Every structure is written in C-alpha cells, then in structure tokens.
Amino acid sequence: MRRVTMLLVVPVLGIALVVTAGALLAPWRDRAPVSRDTARDTDPIAAAQRRLQRLPGDWNTWAELGLAYVQRARVTGDQADYPRAEQALGRSLEIRRNDNAVALAGLGALAAARHDFPAALRHGRAALAVDPYRAAALGVVADALTELGRYDEAFRTVQRMVDLRPDAASYARASYTWELRGDVGRATDAMRRALDAAAEPADRAFARRHLGELAFGTGDLGTAATHFTEGLRLLPGDPPLRTGLARVRAARGDTGAAIAEFRAVLTAVPEPAYVAELGDLLTAGGDPVAGAAEHARARAAWAAEAATGHPPEADPVLFAADHRDPAALDAARRLYTRQPGIAGADAMGWALRAAGRPAEALRHADQALKLGTRSALAHYHRGMILADLRRTADARAELETALRLNPYFSTRHAPIARATLASLGR
C-alpha cells in the first residue's frame, strides 16, 4: 500500500511552509525524507531565528519556528529537531498563554510526528476551540482521527477543511480520503486540484509525487513516470520522486537501473525502508547474497531506531513479518494499539499470519479492507492468509485482485502471488 504524508500549510514569515502532520495519513509506505541539502535550501528556520533576534517576544514567530523544526525533522529524519520544536512552541505559549492557536496546532503536529495521535487530537481540538477557522488545526485533527481509525469523523473534518480553505493542503487530504475508500478517480482529481492550487515548487512536486503513486498503484507505468519526472523538474534530487521513478524502471524490467537509482538515493538518505527495497531488488536481480546484506542493514537501522524509543511503524513490522522475525507480532501489537486503523490492522494481520495464526490474521485483514481501499498489497496479504486457511477459491480471488490492481505492486511479493496462484490451480 501507499504511504501518504499529507500537507499542513501554514504561513511562516511570508513563506508557504509545508508541515506534515504525523507520519501520518501515511499508512502504507516509508517516511518521505529528502536530503539535508534540499531541506536546508527550503528551510525557514534561519529566517525565523533572525526575526527573533530582533523581536524576542514575538510569540507568533516562536510558534512558527517550532512548526519549522517539525517540518525539518520530518524531511531529514533527524528527530533531534523535535525537542527544539517543543522548546520553541513552549516559549510561544509562555509569552502568550491564551488564544494561541498557532502554538497549539504546532503541538498537535509535533505529537502526530511522534505518533502520539491522542495528544495530536487533543492539541488540534484545543487550537480549534481558540480559532474554529484555523485550517491547519483542522488538518491536525483530521490526520489524528485517520490514524486512530475514526474514519467517519476524519472525513467530515477534511470536508470542513476543504469548505473553509480549498487549497493544496485540504485537497491533498481529500484525495487521501477518496483513496482510502477505493475511489482512485476522485482521489486523482482531488490531487490534481492540489497541484493546481500549490503555490510553491515543493508543494507542486509533492502533488506530482502522489499523482505518480496513484498511477503506479493502478499499474499505469507511463502516467506514473510522467508525474515523477515532472516532480523532479520541480524538486531535483528529491528521494521519494527518484525512488518512484526507480520502481517504474523495475516494473518495466530494468532492474539494474532501479538498483543504481536506489543506491544513489541511499548515499544522501539512509532510509531503512529504501534499504529494504534495495535488498528486494538485488534478490530479484539474481544476487541474493547482496540482497540479504541490504536486508540486514535495514533490520539493524530499524533496531537502532527502536532502541532510541522511536514508535513502531508499519514498514519495519511488515518487513519483520516477511522475514518471519519472532519479534514481529509484538511490534505489530504495539503499532495496532497506537494506530488501530487500516495500517495497523494490515500489519497486525500479516504478523499473525507469520506467527502461524491465520484465523486471527483474517479478522485484521478484513479490517484493513473494510473501507474498500484498492490496495494490491492488502489484497495480497488477505489472499495468502486465505490460502493458509485452505479457502482456495477465496484465496485465488484475492490474489487475482491484487495482480489485477497492480501487477507490479511489490518486487518481493508479486512473484509470490503468481506462484501461489499457480499452485492453487483453477
């Protein structure tokens, strides 16, 4: 499934700052880091700091600085910025304790970034109590509700956000609500509206990236390649766009070019999910030893993150279940407790299947598809669980659905889906 990171646009010293409100609206894929050089080029932190040197009591700029730190942590993956964000937002509230919706919304974005979605919801609602018309706070609330699996409330909040401010941030969230409900056409239309409304090149590149991922999710490689390429013209070197184009190349059979692209990206951004995907590509390309080495690197990087208190995410849980790691189920439980929505349910089901408990796994796989999400990976997971339960006809239907939705959905799992279908017969 596709992991989406949504937009939360707030004005920062006249600059449109795109702040992601959690790792968030993001159930299906890795975080979306960019290189530190790219982040520095678009980072408004220095401008905020210069202004605060002149106006140290400017509570609004302190709040904006906190939001900027949240954004930088999100795009670089450096969690050291989160305490800086907390300090700046706290300073804003010290100066202006009451009626400070900007800082409260910032605390909500920070809590979501740390995967504390109940706290994100609480802060977002506190911001709305101060300013019911603050679109950024509506975004925080919508994102938190989505990750908590409270979809009806989340969708109503997104609609309110669109009604209040039909801009790139609200259209991007609207796109995701349609994607969750399985309406890829409306999801694409809403993301095109986000593209049209985006004022900054980085925001337009964001929309291009997700339009490319929507197209790739349906197996439309040509359209996906076009969007990824256009996005890279707007934001050269952006790792998510580059890896999107690499996946298209792999799907077209050019595994060597895809491997080279992933290696190049990883020199700038050592993201564990990209390392794991490189391992899959190397294995598929006929070098299982090199693939296993990359898988070991990814495993070690995720273990290091966990040792620092980083909350569980879907990617490492699914990876652990893929490799039959005995720790996968415990990690899945912790993820599902924090995020009892589609992402957590899918990971929980896959980990239960890896633990040899397919009957329990099926209940979670059903939950992951309850909204009608057209995810090839989720259908594949459900199909393999059904195969374990010897429900042959149902398993065939699910695996055929996965491959019909996107024959290229996973370098690792698409071949397994085909082989399993062949073994099940007709």
Q: Strand order of the main beta sheet, please?
A: 1-2
Q: List the uncertain runs.
A: 1-41
Q: What is the number of beta strands?
A: 2
Query: Please, how many helices?
Result: 23
Q: Helicity level, as a percent range?
A: over 70%
CATH class of the largest domain: Mainly Alpha
Tell me about this structure.
The chain has 426 residues and is mainly alpha-helical. The protein folds into three domains: 8-185, Alpha Horseshoe (Serine Threonine Protein Phosphatase 5, Tetratricopeptide repeat), CATH 1.25.40.10; 200-266, Tetratricopeptide repeat domain (Serine Threonine Protein Phosphatase 5, Tetratricopeptide repeat), CATH 1.25.40.10; 312-424, Serine Threonine Protein Phosphatase 5, Tetratricopeptide repeat. Helices cover 72% and strands 2% of the residues. It has 23 helices and two strands. The chain has helices at residues 36-42, 45-54, 59-76, 81-95, 101-113, 117-130, 135-147, 151-164, 168-180, 184-197, 201-217, 221-234, 239-251, 255-268, 272-284, 288-307, 314-322, 328-338, 342-354, 358-368, 376-388, 392-405, 413-424; strands at residues 8-12, 15-19. The chain has a two-stranded antiparallel ribbon with strand order 1-2. A hairpin with a 2-residue loop joins strand 1 and strand 2 (15-19). Helix 2 (45-54) runs antiparallel to helix 3 and helix 5 (101-113) runs antiparallel to helix 6. Residues 1-41 have low confidence and may be disordered.
Outline:
This protein has 23 helices and two strands. It is mostly helical. Mean pLDDT is 90; it is low at 1-41.
